[in-house]
Write a structure and sequence with these properties.
The protein has 338 residues and is an alpha/beta fold. Helix 4 crosses helix 10. Strand 7 and strand 8 form a beta hairpin. The chain is 41% helix and 18% strand.
Length: 338
């Protein structure tokens, strides 16, 4: 018996729809708003919501055409419930709820970060217990998983997320939004010549990036006030080394204290070439399996939402049609749908 799920993702600045059949991806359509928000140096929530409203129907239609299916063929509709921008989430949720009601099909709410983690399952199967390193514009977390849909956060940022830090440092250096890819590119041509403080250097698992961000901003302003030249490549390299090396150090602590069979990285910052290199090297040194997601899985997409929904469908985890958005939904409370 076939199982076809249509998933919608609209948590931030991508309007996306994917269709999965018996675990196989049939369509994954994304309408990105990056070029629009780049004019403002970051995501503008009200503009994001308006663009989601304009794009949601064309994106769903494009996914159905690519999969050669109609809405009558869909067995369940999945949606990102949170976390994310409340207005952006609302657009996708209302679309999914309407379709579920109209076609009398189940509605499956999916946690955005769970989606990023399970994007790695497009590469290969998970080997539990595993460590998921979740790094994005809004999150920096170390998540232990002993089985499917079992999330235990053992470390997280106390202030800024690493992706947010990348964007703010890029802005002060005059680099375009989103900042992560530009920092990465400049770092490849630079040398670690600027001394920057290592953030929250201890034997625990939590992160703190606010001090590093502030130090870079203050250093750049000081150099400019003194009419000293700033080597963008070297500054990018020095910052990236410091920010990413902290993730590697925290991961080493986890591997020392927990039995881990596999490491995976998830979220937008998982596209960073230095992080991918260092995590692969660490996993090989520790004889631990590693999953590095393909670049198309690092940005927001609906395929990852469909992957989680596929698991939830088998567990009969469905939501009522009065489900509301939850921008603060905790991944530990994953199955406590209200």
């Amino acid at each position: 018996m076939s199982k076809i799920i249509l998933a919608i993702e609209s948590s931030c600045d991508e309007t996306a729809c994917a269709i999965i059949k018996n675990g196989n991806l049939l369509a994954n359509v994304i309408s990105s708003q990056v070029d629009v928000h780049a004019k403002y140096g970051g995501v503008m929530p009200e503009i994001a919501s308006r663009l989601h409203s304009e794009n949601i129907i064309p994106v769903i239609d494009a996914a159905l055409k690519k999969a050669n299916l109609t809405l009558n063929d869909i067995d369940a509709f999945a949606i990102t419930r949170g976390p994310g921008l409340i207005g952006a989430l609302h657009v996708g949720l209302q679309a999914a709820k309407t379709l579920a009601w109209l076609y009398n099909k189940p509605l499956i709410p999916v946690h955005h970060l769970a989606g990023h983690i399970y994007a790695n399952s497009f590469v290969k199967e998970f080997k539990f217990p595993l460590l998921a390193i979740v790094v994005s514009g809004g999150n920096t977390e170390l998540v232990l998983m002993n089985k499917d849909l079992d999330f235990q956060i053992i470390g997280q940022t106390k202030d800024d997320a690493v992706g947010e830090c990348f964007d703010k440092v890029a802005r002060v250096l005059g680099l375009p939004y989103p900042g992560g890819v530009h920092i990465d590119n400049h770092a490849k041509n630079g040398k670690h010549t600027y001394h920057l403080p290592s953030p929250l250097h201890d034997s625990l698992y939590d992160f703190s990036y606010s001090g590093l961000k502030t130090n870079v901003i203050n250093l750049v302003h000081k150099l400019r006030q003194n009419n000293e030249e700033i080597n963008i490549d070297d500054m990018a390299k020095s910052f990236q080394d410091t920010a990413i090396d902290m993730i590697i150090e925290k991961t080493k602590h986890v591997l020392k204290n927990y039995k881990i069979n596999q490491i995976l990285v998830a979220g937008g910052v998982s596209a960073n070439s230095y992080l991918r290199e260092k995590i692969t090297q660490l996993a090989n040194d520790k004889n631990v399996d590693v999953i590095i997601p393909p670049l198309w899985c690092t940005t927001d997409n609906a395929a990852m939402i469909a992957k989680v929904a596929d698991l939830l469908f088998d567990k009969n985890v469905f939501a009522q049609l009065d489900l509301s958005c939850d921008p603060n939904w905790e991944i530990q409370d994953y199955l406590n749908f209200k």
